[in-house]
Amino acid sequence: MAWYGLGLDEIDLSTATDLASLYDQVAERARTFPSTRSSSAAGTTTPGSAAIPTGTHLDRVAGDRPVWLKHRSGHSCAVNSAVLRRTGVLDGSATIPTGGVVVLDPNGDPIGVLEEQAQNLVVALVVPYPIDTLRTAIGRASAVFAAEGLTHVTEAGIGAGWIGKSPVELAGYQRARNSGDLAVRAQLMPTVDALHPVEGHADDGIGFGLDLGLGTGFGDDMLRLGPMKIWLDGSLLGRTAAMDEPFCDRDGRGYFQDDPELMRQRVLDAHRTGWRVAAHAVGDRAIDFALDVFAEAQRRSPRPDVRHRIEHAAVTRPEQIARMAALKLTPVPQPSFLYELGDTMAAAVGRARADQLHRQASFLRAGLRVPGSSDRPVAAGAPLLGIQSMVQRLTDTGALLGADERVDIATALRAYTVDTAWIAGEEHQRGSLRPGKLADFVLLGDDITTVATERIGTTQVIATFLGGRCTYRPDATIPGLDPTHPRTPGD
Question: Looking at the structure, do residues 135 and 106 belong to the same domain, yes or no?
């Protein structure tokens, strides 16, 4: 939410059709900034394209103003010499984090592209963001979410790492709630880097987590701590996912985000101390690693109903799906990726495997749940767009990816309601309209179970309600929720 909200003030480069137009937009924004400020932008050219912004060209259009362009995947960025100089990359004083790459030209000089954990060199220049800046960003983001019919979101990483905005990021959510700016319920995933060894009684079994022993489930129906988030590999868009076979359009098989033994130990520690774990694993090699570690965790400390997650699970083999079912793991693919990013992902894995990307029906046939997810701002976050993509599985060029992986509209609706509540451990509070549950619902301008599938994503959101209170309607400005308002069953 903070990433998306902060991005609302950045240059939107998603419409740049080539590098020339991208550089023009950067130059225009740079002219409005004093030379001492950063010009931060979100988006680049088409993901996976061989054409990427370089520091030399960014120097030419922005002068000495620091420029930081974020790839829409979040797994790489392009910066100019002013940023490389501040990070110590140019003079060789920077320590490149494990799991990160500074891309070099044939002469061994940095071109201005940083992949994966190397982005932390840039992030360190701007974090921590002030809490009130985060509060504003979270409030602005949640207003957009409510307008799209969302009542609950899962935040994919707070507190530390290249995705975290502040070590005290949770305070930004608390202030947004207390000020009435938080228009959706949120479950927050602390990143693995935010967790650390903690001291307590030897019998407690809590040796790894957050201060005061806070863990998964702490909070209330508006704000709650969710799983620990750990990144095992990168992305298909940036060709950094850990794959068994080389990419079809680029050399290499991707790589892990950190030392595998360290990642293994952190997952084991989190599982043993009571955390749910959300493991980002895109490539099939990373998914094998995740399956092995979760299996070991359950052997050592059985927790049969823990509901661990594999985020993305983008490239899976049949035997991996069977193992997920046996281990009671939940895959969390992103259906909107198929429309917005499907063509470049298909180019990465090849036509023969493209139908297996971000599976849905295969997971369901194995007895797994498939919660709706967007990974915003990597892809559009409107749930209606995700539902349409689950039903159609079309790319933006009209290519069909995995006809046998399509689901019907009722299943897609369940993914974005019942199953998202279930994976959060909140199925008894929300996810369906039943007496005693929270009155969270959306009014739509048409019946999406009967309209043509191509119209699902453009169905009008008439109003959104949270706990029986209207958080959005297009003809009025809705004040924030009153955090002191007592909630009772059926309110």
Answer: no
Task: Count the neighbouring beta carbons within 10 Å of the beta carbon of residue 277.
Answer: 27
Peptide bond connecting 97 to the previous residue in cis, omega within 30 degrees of 0? no
Q: Which residues pair with 225 in a beta bridge?
A: 188
The domain boundary residue, chosen from 423, 458, 480? 423
Residues 284 and 137 in one domain: yes
Q: How buried is residue 343: exposed, middle or buried, by Cβ count under 10 Å (0-12/13-18/19+)?
A: buried
Q: Please say which residue of 373, 391, 423 terminates a domain.
A: 423
What distance in Å separates the CA atoms of residue 102 and residue 96, rounded to the nearest whole number? Answer: 8
List, for residues 108-158, the tens digit of each pLDDT value.
Answer: 999 999 999 999 999 999 999 999 999 999 999 999 999 999 999 999 999
Residues 6+ apart with CB under 8 A from 59: 80, 81, 82
Distances (CA, A) of 128 to 11, 121, 167: 21, 13, 7
Q: Read off the pLDDT of residues 205-255 as tens digits, 9 standing for 90 and up.
A: 899 999 999 999 999 999 999 999 999 999 999 899 999 999 999 899 999
How far, in Å, CA of 460 to CA of 371, rounded?
23
| The two structure tokens encoding residue 90 | 């140019």
Contacts for 169 with CB less than 8 Å, ≥ 6 apart: 2, 134, 158, 159
